[in-house]
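Hello Y.,

Per our agreement to keep a running log of every chain we model this quarter, I'm adding this entry. I've kept the format consistent with earlier entries: sequence first, then predicted structure.
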Amino acid sequence: MSLNNEYQIKLNKPYEFFDVTADIGFFAYGETLEESFENSGLAMFNVISNTSNVECNEEFNIEVESEDLVSLLYDYLEELLFLSDVNFVLFSDFNISIIKGDKNLENPYKLKGIVKGESMDWNKHQRGSEVKAITFHMMEVLEKNEYFMTRVILDL
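Predicted structure for the entry above:
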């Protein structure tokens, strides 16, 4: 498969931020749907802290089900934020799989995975912005010719 110029640019960065009044937004990219979701998690946690300083010594299993891909992305990021808040952990490694089941089911999309990180230590980790919530505003999951892209706005 030959990559077009647009994707060559996107391939060099897993995500990029865009300005939104009082909030922050990002586009996340991946060669697969799963990779675009994983990079969405990475982008969100890079708002909270610099993930390059977060070691992977704690592991959490995640599982969410939703009626469509946008809802699945929302539920996935909400689950990550919930796990982070409840367990006081920052995540930096995301390994997920997405399964599309029977479209007649109430929630045909299932996401399962393992996320890794470490306990928050503001003496070690750079403090970024607090993410209060994920929003549905302008949220998208798109399949381009040669890659997948998500668009997310976080409420700070």
